[in-house]
Every structure is written in C-alpha cells, then in structure tokens.
Amino acid sequence: MEPPECPVCLQSYDGESTLPRVLSCGHTACEECLTNIPKKFPDTIRCPACTVLVKFPPQGPSALPKNIDLLRLFPSSSNPTPDSTRNSKNSSFEFVTRSWPDEFHAAWKDRVLLLDAVSVEREGSTESASSSRLCGCLNKGDGDGDSKVSLLRVGSFQRRDDGCDSVFEFSYLLRMISCLWGMEEGERDELDVIMRVEERGVSKVFGLWGDLKSGVLYLVGQKLTDFSLEEFEDISEDDASCLAVIGMQLCEALLSLHKDGIFVGCLSVSCVKFDEFGNAFVDFIELLETGRNVYGLISEETSSCSKPVGALEMGLVLKRLVENGIFVSFEVLFELLKKQNLLITQASSECMVACSSDVLPVCVLLLMLLGGKQFSEELIESVSGVDAKECEEKSEDLLVLYTGLMEKLSYILESKLSGKFKSMVGILRQCCCLDPQTRPVLTDLWKCNRELIMNHRLSSMFALEKKKPRKRKEFCLVLGELCRLVVVGSKELEEDLPGMESGDGAEEGKLDKDFVGRLSEGKIKSKDLRGHQDSVTGLAVGGGFLFSSSLDKNIHVWSLKDFSHVHTFKGHQDKVTALIYIKGVETVCVSGDGGGGIFVWSTSFPLEEQPLRKWYEPKDWRYSGIHALAYSEDGYVYSGSGDNTIKAWSLQDGKLVCTMTGHKSVVSTLVVLNGVLYSGSWDGTVRLWSLSDHSFLTVLGEETQGIVKSILSLAADEGTLVAAYQNGDIQIWRDDTSMKSMQIQSSAILSVALNGKWLFTGGWDRTVNIQELSGDEISLECTHVGSIPGSSVVTSLLYWEGKLFAGFADKIIKVDSHSLSNHVLLLRMVCNKSVLSEISRYIIVGVNKNFSFSSCS
C-alpha cells in the first residue's frame, strides 16, 4: 500500500520535511501547505480536504497537533475521507429545461430590447398587431426622447392567453431567447449578420423586441423619411448634381453591405429613405419587406395556375412587380421561381447570384428617379406590351420575357436621357444586361455618378479603395430565409414562422418527470392545500410527508402522494415560527415558537398529537422567542432567537450545549452547510460558526454596514450562499467571497430557496420569482427566468425533488398538482351493501389512511 500523502502537494508524510498537522475538522495536511493556504479571514483557513472553514492558530501550523497515528500506521492507512455532509449533496434538478447552451444566451441576450423600450403605434393604423410590419417609437433612455422605428416580424411565440392555464410565467428575455432558439439556423445566421451591420448609408438596426400582446418577435430598425415619385417630376439638367449624389450614396450603401457578405438582389422605391440632412439611405427593414413582397406577388399570381407556369403568368408577375416599384435581377427571379417549384428545368442560376445582381436593380431605380412617375408608367406599359406568343411553345423561357423588357428599357434610355445625363446612357445600358458577368460593377456606376458632380481631373484624385469582403458567408437577402416569412392577403402562413410554440415542450419524451419538465412545457398547475387558520410560517419535507407550520399554533402533516391532510400536531401555546425535519437516529419534526418553545414530534406511525419532548429557552418578555432552526449531524439543534443569540441544543435530551453571541439584532435565519453554521440577522450580517467547536469563524456583509439592511432569509447549496433582505435585495457569495448584489424585488423578500443554479424568492410582492445563476469563480450572472403570481404575501418556499411548495399569508399552501391527474385511486374490498355505504362516507370525507391505495397510468 502506498504511504499516505498530503492532499495538497501530494508529498508522502515522513515526519520531518513533510509533517502532517491535524485541523479541527479532523483532516490532515502538511505543515508547509497549511502555511501557504490563502486566508480570506483572520485566523481562519479553508480545509483543503473538505473545504470547511476552520480556526487557524495565530502562531501558525506548528501550534496544530501532529497526526502521530498517521505517521505510525501509514502502511495501512489512507487519507481521511471528506465529511459525509460534503458527499451527501442533494440531487439537483433542472428547473427550466433549456436546450440552448450558455454561449447562445450570452450571444443574443444583449440584442433583445427591453420590454418597455418600444411602443407600437396601433391606434389610427390599418395595420393589425400581428401584421408583418409595424411602426413605433423607441425610448432611448438617454433623455433625448423617442425616435421613430420600423418593426418587421421575424418570429412568433406563445402568448400568455393562448389556451395555457399554467401558473408560471417565463420572463420576457427568456421567452425571446426561446423563440430565437426555435428558429432555423439559417434564419438566425441572417439575423446575426444583419444586426452586426454598422455601415455608412444603411439604416440602423437597433435589436429585437417581443410584443407580448400579439406574441410576435420583431426586428426593430431606424425609420427615416419617405419620399414620393411626384417629387422627381420635371427633373432638369440643373438637378443633375442632386440626382448624382443620391446615386453615389445608394452605390456606397450597397458596396458597404457587400463587405458584410450581403447582396440584396432586388430594390424598390420604398427602400430609399432620407435623413434630416437630405442624405440617401437604404432602409434595411424595407429591404426585407420588399423581399417578402416579391414572394407574396409570385404566390398570388401563380396560386391558381398549374405548375410549371407559362410565360403569360410570368408576364403578369413582372407587371405586378414593376407596378409595385420592385426591380429584381433576372438571375434572382429565376432562383425564386426554382425555390417555389414553378419551373421544372434542372438548370440553376444560383451560382450567378452575386454582387453583380445588385447592379440591375440600382440602375432601374436610378432611371425611376430620373424619369419620375412618367417613366414608371411607361415601364409598366412596356412590360404589358411584351409579346408572350414568342415563348408559348417554351413555357419556361423567362429569358425571352426579360429580353423584351430590356429592349424596351434601352429604348426609353436613349429617348429620354439627354444633356448632362447623356453620358450615363452607355453604362446604364450595360447595367441592364441579362448576363451578370458582363454587367459593370457598382464602383463603375458610382464613378459615373461622381463625374456629374466634379470634373474628370479632380475626380481622378480620389481612387475608390477596393476592400476585400470580410470573412463571412455571403448570401442574397431576397433568397434568404427571413424573406420567406410572407403574408398572403390577411392570412399569415404560420407554418413558415420560426419559434412557434405549441406547448408540447422543447424536448421529446419528457412528459412527466418533474416540476422542471412541466415548467419548460408550460404545464405548471397548482393545488391549494387549505386547513391552517392563519399565515403559513414554515415548510419541511421528509418521510413521505409535507409539514407546514402556522401562526395558528398548529403543524399540519400532508401526504406527498395525493397531498391529502393526514394529521395535526398540537401543543404549542405560541405562534409557530420555525420548522425543520430531521432524519437521524430517529426521524422527527422540530418546531419553534414565539414563546421560546422547541418541540420535537415523532414522524413514525401512529402519529401522535403530543410531542416526544419539548423544552424552552430562558423566557424574557423583551425578546420574541425562536425565529429560526437548523440541525447538524452531530446531533445538535440550533435556534436563532430574538435575544440576538444562537443556541445549540442536544436533540436527545434538550440540554443547552452552547450559546453563540455576536449579532446585534434578531437572528432571523440559520443554514448548515459543509461543517459551517451560517446565521443571518436583522443587523444585516451573516456570521459563520464552526460546527466542531461552535467557535466564531468570520462575518460576511460588514462591507454594507453603512446602510443596514435586515437579512430575512438564507439559502445555501454547493458552496453558494444567498441572503435575502428586507428591501428586495439579494447578495450571493461563493466560497464565502461576495460575487453579486442586486435588487430583484421592490419589497421585502421573506423566503429564499436554492437548488443548484436555480434561485427562488418570494415576499411582499405576492410573487415567486425564479432566477438562474451562471458564471465561474471570477464572475456570476443572475438571470430572471420567470415568475409565478400568488394570491397573497409569500411567507415560505421549499424546493424538493422537482416540486415547488409555497406558503402564503392567506393560510394557503400551493403545490405542483400535475401528478394528481395521472393517478387513479383504486379500492379493492369485498363487503356487503351496508358496509360499502359506510365506506363511501369515509371516502367523501377524505379519511384515506384506513384504505390501501395504488396508482396506475
């Protein structure tokens, strides 16, 4: 057998260079390692084996006893095992089953705007709350007032009133993250690219916002000034510079998008907006809306036609597009028809869709601005006059239709443009070429517009820098997933909307495992346990029972199988204020009251009304009795009292073992974890005490003594300690290091429960709030997950094996009731009619302890 070694440096003990020293918790480490262990608090270190805080002598490790037995018997010895309390951790349940990783949450949480950041303009608008696009105002929160925004529908989520009677309400942020996770990966990728764009000449995208009333997730973008084609009527040569500037700015905006890997493929008059200085912008929201309009127009014109459609229907599609001021490149329209299975040819032009696909729409849009409304009417007339007979035998020859249109367009160019605009005819004709590879690039069109403003000599001084595209996946906006979310008429194609929640859960196969699974599915229902005559003060679980204490001086016992009332413990002469369950040599329930009484109740059958034993702390009219109880495996019951002390009592005989002093006000809450007793007080501090010798270890919370906030509740789990305060604050420590302090409620938090990363709080705001803790040893995040509204002040919380229990000031206890609906109570008895009628009376009354019940599904 290997010789024993130090758990820190792994050196074998030899009695000289590596000398074993024994800590008060019973574990051993070498003298040198104990010297180098960091000391967060004076005269205190954390045991390297069990992580319990223990006293450390000021003289150093030499004052600790040597482990003589270990040195003598090392061939047959091994390092001591950690405390049983360290190994016997409660099983942790996933409160909210999430399928997305933390990285996804971190990447998207800051892109979701606050719920009150956007106000939708519904009154006086013909747009419905569920329409594809809305207008609204964005509250900047910086004192600059509101700014106009456009909202584009990108996803849907379940509304609160959509046939869901769950008592749980997910937080706004979590519902938006869930909606995003439910999208297709392509949709999220496009949103990611769009929201990263911060380019010149492109309208800003502020983020995502969810409308809880309509259950719609919107993309929120900057709303700029619209213009009308009537404003461009009677354009003269004197206006050439103005139009050239607009042309340059449009080219610059699209070139900027190309750097981000985005090419649009189509444009409309509505995509061009102006700011207060008259600068032209490309509106991102309008670009997406235009792409959806293209899908919608194609669907409308071809819905009643057989597939594949002919040239006549394609002519109608082109006419409708031009009538709506939408200009689509040939290769882009070809791919759109292919995606909708309207063409049977196996040929594809997707490889031809590239940055050059933006040249043709820009060209037609500039011609529209140059020619005004008259040009638009002539273009529509030209489309209507394209002869479809030439391609009747070739029903899919879209090329013939486009060729005829481009010929008409070239004729209009030569007949309408003259004077200063004559120099643009050549390059505009090239831009109308059907072959994208022979079209000029956008930079050439930009230069052509610039030459209308400055002479050629000065123009040559400024060379347009050719920047390489960023290393991102390129995609065409109109061919993307976001533009496929179309609205035909007034009926939305909900099957195409991402993130729609049916309420069937995020994970298959998770039907009835625990409270967490049902929560994620939106199926949380509660059952009310009634019986107390006053406010509920405490909850405990053990031995198949739920125990509840109340100001009515009684303790009720409820069955965990069907939550029926089983028994009542009576005997307290004062209001019961604290309650715990102990599973040790004997399984008992211990309660404390306002008169200083501590009662021990047997939980073995048959249950008795009187306690096994009871004792009282010294009575003093100045103090308010017992406020908190805790238990250690050493057999001690600890009480926190109104006289500012913590007392240790022997559970076996009720004798007072020790009195711990130091708090300056009522000791309101106690927690035992990893060999340490944590006591919280109205003085705003948490004091730590060693369970081995009841000595004081250190104090937490002294850094906030300038503002005294009374601690009303403590919760601890796996090295994490949470304190709840009267002003709605919580403070979180990990390994006794303060990690987070924040306000999560507007009023006092009376109870707090902690299970793994899930934190539950309740108090005067009549709501159970759920937070999720995440992070590492350096930083900690506390994210609001959701809430469960209550009927009254929340006075007590308990989370046990996947079930949440809550006690309220209105005498009610609420529990998760889903399991009741999956059980059928069976009674097998052979009896005559008179006996059966007598039995039925007992069943109605609810005295079920006399019968044998079984459950089936």
Automatic annotation (TrEMBL):
WD repeat spans: 529-568, 626-659, 660-699
Keyword terms: Metal-binding, Repeat, WD repeat, Zinc, Zinc-finger
Keyword hit for Zinc-finger: yes
Annotated SUPFAM superfamilies: Protein kinase-like (PK-like) (SSF56112), RING/U-box (SSF57850), WD40 repeat-like (SSF50978)
Keyword Repeat in annotation: yes
Span of domain RING-type: 6-51
InterPro entries named among the record's database cross-references: Kinase-like_dom_sf, WD40/YVTN_repeat-like_dom_sf, WD40_PAC1, WD40_repeat_dom_sf, WD40_rpt, WDR86-like, Znf-RING_euk, Znf_RING
PANTHER family with a match to the protein in the record: PTHR44489, WD REPEAT DOMAIN 86
Listed name of the protein: RING-type domain-containing protein
Organism: Brassica napus
Upper lineage: Eukaryota, Viridiplantae, Streptophyta, Embryophyta, Tracheophyta
